[in-house]
Amino acid sequence: MSELIAYIAPQNVLPALSDCILILNSSNTHLNLVLEAQASSKQKRWVLPQPVQRLSLGSETCHWLIASLHHEPQPLTPTNRAGLQIQAMGHCLNHQDLAHSLNLGDACSLNELIAAILQRQIDDGANLTEAMLIANAQLKGQISYLCHQQSQAQFILASCLGLPLFVGLESGLRQICCSSLRLIRQRANQVYAMKDGDIVRFGLDTPLLILGDGLEQVLEMPAVTKNQSVPHFMLEEIEAQPETLAILVQKYKEGYVLPLALRAKLSGIRSVTLLACGSSYHAALVARYWFETLAGVSVQVGLSSEYCDRDVHVGDHDLMIAISQSGETTDTIAALKHAQASGRPRTVALTNSPGSTLTTLVDHHLLTHSGAEQSVSATKSLTAQILLLFMLADALGQARGHISAEQVASHDEEMLLLPNVVAQTLLLNKEIRRWANALHRKNNLFVIGRHTHYPVAMEGAFKLREVAYQHAEAFPAGELKHGPITLVNDDLPVIVCLPWNQQAQKMLDDLKAIRANHGEIFILSNGNIASVEGTSVIRMPSGLTHLSPIIYIVALQMLAYYCAVLSGNAIDTPRNLAKVTMDF
Fold it and tell me: What is the pTM of this model?
């Protein structure tokens, strides 16, 4: 995903930018920079090396700059008549309509579009802040942008329309605005998190919030405590999941999640293929059961890195869903193109990144609205993917007449209940930490489950390998007797996902074989199961049926996190991993 950084100060701000690029350690390889040049401005472009190194910016001095980092090269935007320089990120849903109204070409950039809208308002007599208020009412989508005007060189204006922006005060009178929470926390002493619709003016004076009537209000900027209560981004993002899921449910109820154009095509769908890798692959495996049960369609789940080697045949009645948090996962993009080359499926991208490469290749895109994720390990973005796939499966079931009105109402109630049940799950952290004390030194672990909770076990084992560096393997519980049970002994613990459902009795039968081999058992269950010698039970919240995989995933995320902490691992940046998968 793109990143924005702006600096303004009485002293040279170029060294601060170089420090920021090192801190971000972003996989974005293209930097566009607008900076002060005497009484005017100039633009520069860099291709950043990977891994990121300190940027050599020369010996020049400047007191303000606006930088944007992108995955692909972006055109430079010339200064317009009003002396405006814009750097934007995100996706404008009505980009084409606005471009036509301004006599711009369809290929104009988001920077050019916003500059042209502001220019028209200034030509009509508005000042810059008035122009931004008018422009923001016209722009639809998830966008944030930074604006500098030559006639007000001592200020930069920031606008937040759905994508995060933070304004901060640094030492030495520097003021910073950026899109990265991790960066602002490391750099600033005081921070304001911009809300949707905010316009903030900052610079060589006290930062101000521009209100809807054009009036100004001094920003309240809380101090940043460098060793605040949440020690790692991964834990912060685990704990953010009730809010993240509540936002997604609210947007779904308001009709903003599934486009009407996609809904109109669902009745003609006969089969579904889900393409993903990593944690997103486990989300797809959970969703497979829902598409089969709720929508009554045949389902394939393709591992993106393997899919291109298959001789696939897709048709007009196939729905192809490509899943990627970043929308830039190379394997998933290649798998989607491979499918499109073999036929004409109806295509959907499910991502957290509007305007990403994946969204440009499909008929429709669905956004998880899970916010920026600073830790490499997927937590809140994963559970949002799973919930969004449930929403799509439910909509497909309705369109095909496969589920009743009563079932639809029940699903809606379960979605509304979900954020609170996730919050209850987070309250189990003390019990999960006790498990981590017993498990973090184990060289080998099994994680097992049945039905939708087998992919949950896969994700739990994946997290233990990824973050805690422990060799954990996932199995369908019924498969233990077909070989893996020979490895179970008193030194190989088995973690069990055991929701009290139709598969519960089968799971209890599977556990007898583990106990017979003296295996130590750690059970997550909402059933009335007691802890006894050799078996430890954490009582999970009840109330969920279809969506119960989400709370078991949250519990396993916490277990992997605490195991990693006890082992002294790098939590947010596990060794050898990066947030976006790319080929080099």
Answer: 0.64
Q: Phi and psi (nearest 5°) for 299?
A: -135, 135
Phi, psi (rounded to 5 degrees) for 554: -60, -45
- Of 513, 450, 526, give the one whose Cα is nearest residue 484: 513
Check whether 579 has a pLDDT greater than 70. Answer: no
Question: What's the pLDDT score for residue 481?
Answer: 78
Give the three-state DSSP class for 85. strand
Which tokens in the block code for residue 431? 């019990």
What's the angle, vertex CA 289, arms to CA 297 and CA 551, rounded to 5?
Answer: 145
Q: Which of 130, 136, 152 is nearest to 194 (CA)?
A: 136
* Edge-first strand listing for the sheet containing 84-92: 84-92, 141-149, 155-161, 199-203, 208-210, 216-218
Mean pLDDT across the stretch 5-31? 87
CA atoms of 323 and 341, how far apart (whole Å): 18
Structure tokens at 62: 């400047």
SS3 content of the chain, % helix, strand, coil (to 5): 40, 25, 40
SS3 per residue for 154-196: CEEEEEEEECCCEEEECHHHCEEEECCHHHHHHHCCEEEECCC
Q: Tell me if 482 sits within 8 A of 454, measured CB to CB.
A: no
Q: Return the structure tokens found at 513.
A: 């074989």
Task: Assess contact for 300 and 273: CB atoms under 8 A.
Answer: yes
Provide the token pair at 447.
């994680």
Render pLDDT for 325-377 as a digit per residue (tens, 0 to 9): 989 899 999 999 998 988 888 999 999 988 889 999 999 999 998 887 888 89
Task: Give 439-465 pLDDT, tens digit per residue.
Answer: 999 989 999 999 999 999 999 999 999
Which pair of structure tokens corresponds to residue 134? 């008018």
Q: Which residues contact 521 (CB under 8 A, 6 or more apart)?
A: 493, 494, 496, 511, 514, 515, 534, 535, 536
